[in-house]
Each structure stands twice: as C-alpha cells, then as structure tokens.
Amino acid sequence: MLIHRLLRATLAGLLPALLLPAAATAVVAADDERFVVVRNATIVPVEGKLQKKATIIISEGKITNIGPSIEYPRNARVIDAEGMYVMPGLIYAETRAGLPSPSRRGVHGDLLAADEYHPRAGQFDDLLDAGVTTIGLLPTGAGIPGRAAIMQTAGDEDERFLQREGYLYVTSSKSELREALKKAKAEIEKVEKARKEFDEKQKAEAAKAKQEAARKEAEKKDGQPEARPAPASQPTSQPTTQPAKFEPPKIDPAYQPLVDLLKDKTSVPILLEASQAAEILHLNEVLDEFEIDPHWTLRNNRQSDLFKVAEEIARTDETRVVLRAGRHRVPYSAERLPLIQMIAAAGCEVSLVPYRDNAYEYGNLLARVAELVREGWDRDTALASVTLHPARLLGIDETRGSIKKDKVADLIFLDADPLAPGARVRKVMIAGEIVHEVEDEQ
Amino acid sequence: MNRHLIRPFNWQVLVGLTLAVLLALPALAQDEDGRRRGKRGRRARSQPTTQASQPTTTSTTTSTSTSTSTTSAESEEEERPAYLAVINGRVHTITDGTLIGATILCKDGVIEAIGGGVRVPDEAEVIDAAGFDVYPGLVACGAGGIHGGGDKRDTTNVFGLNMEIALAGGITTTLSGNDAAKLTYGTTDGLLVRKNVFASLRYSANRPLERARLREDLEKVRDYLRAVQRYTLIKERDEDAEEPDKSEIKGKLDEYLKLLKGERVAIASANEVGDIRALVGLAEQFGFELVIRGATEAWSIAEEPGRAKVSAIVTPRNSTSPDERLNRPSGASIENAAILARHGVPVAVLPASTSITLWGLAGRDLLHLNMEAAFAVRGGMRNDEALRTITIDAARIMRIDDRVGSLEVGKDADLVICDGDILSYMTQVHHTIVNGRVAYAKADSSLYRHIRPAGGPIETDFDDQWPRSLEWSAEDLATTDPAARKKAKEAEKKADEGKEAEKEAAAE
Question: Does domain B198-397 have CATH number 3.20.20?
C-alpha cells in the first residue's frame, strides 16, 4: 500500500514533466525533477523565526534554500502550501511502533532492535498520520535488552535505517547495572591480562632466541664443526624472524557495548530508564562509581515524584531526558505540578514522547505540547522537544530536527498552527518526497 | 488568633531555586573537577522552609547564595563540614537528663556538642526550637514496608510515602528485615546502621521435633567450642594434639557458633509462659543473649527473664484473654512492660502492627510508636522509662546504642523536634533530623502541614477534617478560625437584618 502511494507520488510528479512540450524549456525534464518547491507556506523552522509566505527549495532530498521570494527552476515540482504550516517532521526518541515486544531479561548488548523490524508489521501508518518522520525503535525487555534503531517511518525499505546501532537501552535496577558494569570491567581486565602475559612471553622468547644466537656464534667462532645434523638450526631461527600476533581473548558480545563505553565514555550513547525519584539517587551512585553520564528516559506517571531530584537528573550540562508528555500532580494530593518544565529548568534538554506508546496517543503529542505551552512553557523549547531535541538525542541533528539549509527535507504540512487546537497533519514529506497524505474523513 | 497563610505546596519556590541553580550553571561548568553535579546538586538542595511559629529555620548560607557563589567558593564548600544547630529547645538526652534551652550542634551527621555555652559556627544551619521539645530519633525494633528488600542500600525508596509517615511519627531507625537501617529521606547516604542484627531461633512447644533439633545443634556447637578451648590449652605442651574439625560447623551451625561466642544476639517469638520459660532456660543453659519478641505473658514470670538477662520486645496494648482453665495468671496485661522493667528486663516497645497501615483500627501501626510507649506508662511505667523503651533500650537490644538512641556527643545526629511531650497524643513532630539532615519538616509535608499549622493546642474544627482542603486561600483559612467564622456569621446576620429592614421600609 505504501509502495503504491510512493509510486503514485512519483508518477504524479513525472507525468506532467514528460508531457510538457519540448520547446517550452531547454532544460531536460529529468533535471527539473531534482527540484521540489514548497510555496506560500508558513514555516515553523524550530531553529529561527517563523516565516510567512515563504518558499522552500529542495534538491535531492535536501533543503537548498529557504526564503520569502526566491527563484526556482520553472519546471520544478511545486507544492502549493497556501494556508498551511510547514514544520520539521516529528521525531519520537523511543517507540516500539506497534511491533511485537518480546520480553527478555539480562544483558543483551549485542541484540539490535533493527533486526526485529518487519516491513509489514508495526503501526507506521499511524505514526505518519501523527506527522512522525523519524523514530528510535526501542528494544524491549528488562535489564539491557539491546540497541535501538534510528529509522524513518516511510521510504525505501533499503534506506529506512539511519543507524542500525543506535543508543543502548538500559532498564536495569541499581544492582543489575552495577553487576553488568563490573562484568564489562572484568572483560577489559581479562584482555589486558592476556596482553601482558603475551608481551612477557614474547620478551622471554626474544631473550631466549638471542641467547641461542649468541651461543651459536660462539660455537662458530670456536671453529668446531656441528656434530648434529643441520635441520635443527632452521626451525630455531624461524620464530625470531616472524613476530607472533596477539590474539585477544573473546569478549562476551552481550557486554561489548558496555566495554566500549568504559573504554571511551562517548562511544556508546546510553538511554537509562528510571521511574522514581529514589531510583535516580540509587543509579547515580553506580554512575558516579563508573563515571558514566547517560541520558535518561523517565517513566513519569501522573503522580511522579521525579521533581524532587530534578537537579540530580541533570548530571552534566548536556544531559538529555526523554519524558512522557502528560499532566502531573504532586503525589498524594490533587495539586497540579509542572514536572516537565521543572526538569527542563534544572538544565536538562527535554525530548517528549507520547504518554503511552500506542497508536491512539501517537496523534496526541502536539496537543499535549500545546497544553504545556498554555501552562507557560516556552513555545520554541516546546516545539524543539518533539523535533530538534530528540534529533540531538539520537545523534542525527546534523541532518534532521529543524528546517535549515542543507538538512534533509523531512517536513510535515499542517492545516493550522502546530499548537492550535484541532491542527492536523495533512502531508508528510520524507527526504523531499510526499510519502503520506491525510484526507478528510467522508 | 494569628493564622499563617500556608499554601499546600509551593512549587514556585522549587522552580525558582532550580532556576537559580541554572543561572549558576556557567560558573559550575568552569570548574574542572565539577563536571559531575550529582553530589553538588544534593548539597545545594533547599532546606525546608518554615513558618513563623514553627521552629524557625534560618541559614546564613542560603541556597541562592551558594548557587551564585564563585567557582572557588564552590570547590571550597565541597570540603567544608556541614553544621546544623538546634537551639533553645528542651533537650531530652535520655541518658543524661533534660537540658532546658540547650544547643545541640551537629557536624557532618554526628553530634559535636550539647549544652548551654556551645558556640554555633556562622555557616551552620540553625533551627530555633524555642518552646519545643527535642528528643533523640525513635528506634523501632521491627518494621515492614519502609526499606526495600535484599540489600537495603540498593532497593530502598528514599522518597517513599511510608518513610515520610514514619518520620512524621518521629522514627529515625528501624529493624527492617534483619538489618538496622535509618530513614534517610531524600538521600541514600548513611542508610545502613548494622547488617544481620539477630540470629533468629524457633523454639516452640508446638514443634517438638524442631526443639530437639535446635538443642542437638547447639550441643554440637558447644562441644566444638569446648574442644577448641581444650586444644588451645594443651597445644603447647602436647604436640600430638589435633585441632578440632570445623568442617561440620557451617551454615546454620556457623550462625549458632557466633551466637554461643557472643558475637550475635538471638531473637525468638514467644508469648505463652511455657514457651518463654523454655527459651529462657535454653539461653541460660547455653549462655547466649536472647531477645523475646511478643512476651505477652512474661509479666507473670518476670523474675525468670530478669535473672537470665533476657530482653523483651513487647506491645503494651496487646489483648490476649486469660485462659480460665489454667491455675496460674495468664493472658495479656497492660502492666507487662512496667513489671518486666521492674525486674530488670530491658524492654523495647513496638505497636501491634510493625508496618505503616492506612487501614484497620487507627493508631496501632508503626506511625504510633510513641503512643504505644505511652500505654506502657498507663501500665505503671515512669515517663522516662517509657521513653527509653523506644530510644536507648531499643537501640541497646539491637546493639546499635553506640550510634543511636540518645543525645550524646559522638552519636549520630538523629533528632526529633516536637511541640510537646512526645508521649502525649496531642504532640506533633515538626522536624525529624536524620544524620544531621532535615529528613522531615511538617511545614513542607503535604500530609500533615494543614493540621494545626500554628502548632497551638486547639485549632482544628470540622473544616480541617475530611474531606481535606487541598488548596487554601486566605479566606478559607479565615473561615477555619472559629472566632473569624463567628464574626462573619454575625456580619451576615446583620446584613440580612438590614436588608429585611430595608424591605419593610420599602413595603411601608
């Protein structure tokens, strides 16, 4: 169905171009096809100011120019966005996308959520309806279930994955996390020990060979003919000329990402789950011990007490936090509490995901963000929390997350301001191609 | 009556503080070693705000000033000791009398000084407890649902509701599972006091086989100990002497070995005279220290545990009917604790339910530890004796009296500040301090702050009761003041009368 839609979209673009009289333009039709132009749009670029009646020029899937009145090739494919708001496609930093969720326990750093993806499973149409263009596909289970996949919600099956080895998802308890990290440390020490032993052995062998050579030299000098047959000399001299290669003992692949992490603190991004304030304090103890600064995903329920540890969550100046967009109350009371704003104010970069990971809630995220803005959260930060911030968390902010020159044209077209009540996503564009359109229900 | 306007939860203050910290971020970022903010964040945490007639908290180093301080000041602060002083209170030391208007100075979670002429450092956080009573934190010899399972340091919910409620009851240390642990609300530091406090025994008349096995095991361990003793005596003279075989002393027997060596204290449940006698006899025969849990009928044979130095954990309000068929005193007595104490038995008091229960009959759960001790007073104990049953004696039974249970220099800074005698039903805990850190402040508690906020004796009326007001305006508060209500009613009446008079005038 999706492929059909894709075909339709490309054909709709191709046919008029082919039917044009050759005399009308000297440029080859195929050349013009490289350009897609969005006209008359109100642009919400997330980075930068809102632009009205603006034009976006897209070439080869990338944004090449944005401005109020810029020229473009006459035969470029034009999308008239009169009365529409265009913003970068939404990015959900963690979702299962409706795929079946196997539950496993223990450390599985070698498993990839990308391997669990199947093109015919999952609720990608619902995600597209909601205007989501990129997701972090979450591995599921307790402990360390594996690595997330950073992927697009539509497009060529071969090009869907932006990263197959995304962040490492960790839902361990304090003791489980400590044990896992200890084991990883032991793996490193195992390799170091083996190398040390190898080096010592090499040294000893080299010394032995040297001695042997010296002895032979002395024998030769003495002028005594060798009593034994010659072949003995060849094998003894061989090992000294050919240095043996060190073969490190195998590291348990399930622990490989943790090993990499301990060796280089920036090599593997970690998304660590916590749901209660006390958990943050407990996990912080282990993180301090191993000097790791992860990003958090916080299961903030309605009566969350996480506001009590907002400062402890912000471990560094670059701590990123995934929060569920919802309303909160002070525990054991009916009083409203701006939890999300408080965690943001403590210095965390907040990415929002739907309150529940299901198709119904996918479409409610913008409405929830609008609620937060009504409660007084900064509008630009709020919009970035569903676009640019998750892009940074997933490490794809170079190419996605805002409408900017040279970024990939992942755009959504809304029929009203994104935060206006009742605003709906009408068109979804991924890499310059309209991949999804939403019609009014009959 | 002067009422204070209290909002149930002042999150603006919290947001303000976090913003202040945020503003100071660039300063923190410069500090090379200060990339990790976990610890510092904990330090910069706001101390609870208090109202005028609560014991007032004043701090010379407010959180705003710390957050705006320069990098060098920040790094200096890391090493500076944390002082907390409680001044002007009536200090019940338990072990050394009551000191009126004394100062307690705590440094890094330990009591540094107690007395009249104590100099309080400028940087100390000060709690003015004028008109308030200061006690050591209460010790409960049994608790459930406050600390986590397994290793308490890894699993305890330090922001848990039960912990907050227990702190509001003045409790700072509990026996959770078999570990003595503190109620360190809001931090995981200094949680565990002592691991594996007791060796648990079962020695009940209902399980004769179990009894026989226990005796057998104890005898085996005793024989081994005697063999070891003999060996140490003769090994220098006799070269052929063989070291006794320890291979069989493992698992349970190893536990009993520690018990007979005096490294452990045994604990066993017993309520009937027969069971208590058997246990006391066992303890005397094998010479180990014993704590009897329950001890309902112990009052009738109090001299026996008294002679054998056996301790008891009792519930004064326990109500077991006497058995009329027996020709001896039986059943529970409210005098149990008093009689046992008179016979020299160290007594700890515990309520009927050792968890925080929010159902069933009110006032019999761990939240009412102090009330249970008050019932020991009803049974004939002196006030100061009853206080010991929930402080120093409870700590002694758990062998943690070197750290908690009384206010002494060098002990942990666990204090309870309350607005009266802690054994009175009217008394409310206003501050609970654990390891020199305010773990509970009534003025900040969403559960208790609305109850008699000014600390006076008679302030509540029916509006204060269920359903609770959650957000109070000044007008709301005014209406809960009986005097103000009366006035308002009168004014209303007057207005009505005036209207009627007008109407009448108009009609005429």
Answer: yes
